[in-house]
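Researcher: Please translate sequence to structure tokens.
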Amino acid sequence: ADVRIAAEGTRFGLPDTAIGLSPTSGMTWALPRLIGWGRAVDLTLSGRVIDAAEAERIGLVTRVVPPERLIEEALAYAKAIAAAPATGVALTKRLYAESTEGDLAAATRREIEAELACFAEEETKERFRQFLARKKS
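Model: Translation complete:
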């Protein structure tokens, strides 16, 4: 998931190795990209359980909220993303996904192409005009 919101008090653990299994479901690809190779290997081999605060600190989750606000916070975040112009959201997600491979020059080229595609959209043009008007006032 691009954004991972956890409730305070949540605990995370990877018991696979401790019970004689190896990681599955793409964990060996995704987890090092989220938290770094060393932490991913450590959590997987040790089976250590971490709390939500540590999960946020190491990048496993992106935000920790009180349990009673979890659904409300997640829905508010989703609504904010849904309210943005779809082209910009889709291209942002694609650019980040593609940036894990290749070099800076290729990423910059893709960003320029995406920016031009965004500015081809009337909704983006209007929102940009509104943004500039707010900056001037």
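Researcher: Any highlights?
Model: The beta strands are 5-7, 11-12, 50-51, 63-65.
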